[in-house]
Amino acid sequence: MALSFSAKLMRGVSRCAALVTPKTAPTSCRYFSSAENSRVLVNLNDKTGVATMQLNRPPVNSLNLEVLTDMTIALDKLQTEKDCRGMILTSSSPGIFCAGLDIMEMYNPQEDRLREFWRTLQELWKMMYGSRLATIAAINGHSPAGGCLLSLTCDYRIMAQGKFTIGLNETLLGIVAPFWFQDTMVNTVGHRETERALQLGLLYSGENALKVGLIDELVSPEKVMETAEGQMQMWLKIPDFARQLTKEQLRGPTVQKLAQHQEADIDHFVNFITKKAIQKSLEMYLNMLKQKKK
Ligand SMILES: CCCCCCCCCCCCC/C=C/C(=O)SCCNC(=O)CCNC(=O)[C@H](O)C(C)(C)COP(=O)(O)OP(=O)(O)OC[C@H]1O[C@@H](n2cnc3c(N)ncnc32)[C@H](O)[C@@H]1OP(=O)(O)O
């Protein structure tokens, strides 16, 4: 019998919830670690109540079904740790925060896996956007499409200076950012900027992202984590209850909107992605990525 998403999640939690403290770890730091969980590295500092989640899927941290599942399991586990109050999301590969969704999940897909992939992304987005934790994205490199979306689910974004770009560039691939990607962007930069950004598939430089409010701070690459930790202290000065209820009031309706249309959204996604013309666009984009290297 097929397991429901939450049943799979619970099964996953019990499988990878072991807290392992390596010999080198500071005593206040617990590492959530297992072989299955290594695509995301998670630790929780018991003294500060702040967890760090690092995307760890070289070379570009593209989000396939397994990474999305691991992130969902890890976040669920952190949220059930009563002393965990905040989370910093970053990447273990400086220079690349996240290349977005793994295009190979959408190119020549098997329908069952494609559905599961999209449902897992929806679940992760709902959990992140509505998380009881204070969340900060430490964007230490490129952050296109799904990478930008992930950072937008956080409460605050700090990006590294340099040649890196961020944005919802789906139209450049010949695909369309779904309504909940759009809603997240509108809630951050406003309707007019979202119209421009999403239709043109804009990838913003750090400076331009800061101008339009897509990120909150732009700092040198070596200062990204330190700035995130400092900013987190400010967020954690606010009583959790008041901060969480305020976030719920502001973001709850957006999360509810997807929850109410989740099945239809999966159907739209599958119908759209499996169209011949869309498959052709993805193929051309993949070829373009490969050509770029030559
Ligand atoms: C009625 C209306 C209905 C509407 C219904 C709507 C339905 C919904 C439609 C679908 C919505 C889908 C939403 C999609 C979201 C996404 O996230 S799509 C992914 C977008 N991502 C990108 O465009 C980024 C592409 N990558 C890059 O630009 C660069 O790789 C980089 C991140 C800037 C890093 O550059 P560099 O360090 O130079 O590395 P590369 O050499 O380019 O890449 C290394 C290898 O990795 C491969 N790769 C890169 N990105 C991806 C990816 N996202 N997925 C899979 N693979 C990727 C790249 O090809 C290289 O591979 P090799 O050549 O084999 O080494």
UniProtKB/TrEMBL annotation:
<keyword id="KW-0276">Fatty acid metabolism</keyword>
<dbReference type="GO" id="GO:0005759">
    <property type="term" value="C:mitochondrial matrix"/>
</dbReference>
<dbReference type="GO" id="GO:0004165">
    <property type="term" value="F:delta(3)-delta(2)-enoyl-CoA isomerase activity"/>
</dbReference>
<keyword id="KW-0007">Acetylation</keyword>
<protein>
    <recommendedName>
        <fullName>Enoyl-CoA delta isomerase 1, mitochondrial</fullName>
    </recommendedName>
</protein>
<comment type="subunit">
    <text>Homotrimer.</text>
</comment>
<keyword id="KW-0413">Isomerase</keyword>
<comment type="similarity">
    <text>Belongs to the enoyl-CoA hydratase/isomerase family.</text>
</comment>
<comment type="pathway">
    <text>Lipid metabolism; fatty acid beta-oxidation.</text>
</comment>
<dbReference type="InterPro" id="IPR001753">
    <property type="entry name" value="Enoyl-CoA_hydra/iso"/>
</dbReference>
<dbReference type="InterPro" id="IPR018376">
    <property type="entry name" value="Enoyl-CoA_hyd/isom_CS"/>
</dbReference>
<keyword id="KW-0496">Mitochondrion</keyword>
<keyword id="KW-0443">Lipid metabolism</keyword>
<comment type="function">
    <text>Key enzyme of fatty acid beta-oxidation. Able to isomerize both 3-cis (3Z) and 3-trans (3E) double bonds into the 2-trans (2E) form in a range of enoyl-CoA species, with a preference for (3Z)-enoyl-CoAs over (3E)-enoyl-CoAs. The catalytic efficiency of this enzyme is not affected by the fatty acyl chain length.</text>
</comment>
<dbReference type="Pfam" id="PF00378">
    <property type="entry name" value="ECH_1"/>
</dbReference>
<dbReference type="InterPro" id="IPR029045">
    <property type="entry name" value="ClpP/crotonase-like_dom_sf"/>
</dbReference>
<keyword id="KW-0809">Transit peptide</keyword>
<dbReference type="GO" id="GO:0006635">
    <property type="term" value="P:fatty acid beta-oxidation"/>
</dbReference>
